[in-house]
Amino acid sequence: MQRLLMALTLGLLASNTMAQQMYQWQDERGVMQYGQLPPAGSTYQQIRVQPSPPPGGQLRAPPPLSLKADTRAADAAAEQRRQERARAEQLAATCEKLRTNLDTLRDNPRLRRTNDAGEVERIGEDERQRLISQTQDNLQATCGNQP
Question: Are 105 and 137 in contact (CB under 8 A)?
Fold first, then answer.
């Protein structure tokens, strides 16, 4: 039994080292053929067969470092694009809010607001004009000529 096990182990190890070199070619009928010896008189392509991992060994080789660096760069670029998109959306929302506030200030001469004490007070015309001017300045500074 021990001899059989030893012979099987040696046979597997020997076949592993022998099967690492393969050849591919197309026969006269156009069918792809594979073999351990190159065909005589026809063109062939040499194929490298990866050996199987050792028992209890590593199943997968770690990916090349350059792929990790490329992935990190792509992830960083995607994150930067996402942040720029979020900033643009936030700017658009801020501009829309400023425009709405300006329209409200212009269209409603009788405005009221609640002060810190919780009392409702009327905004006078002078203060309304000051708020209109301040909102226009904020709109120009924040949004510029943005539609």
Answer: no
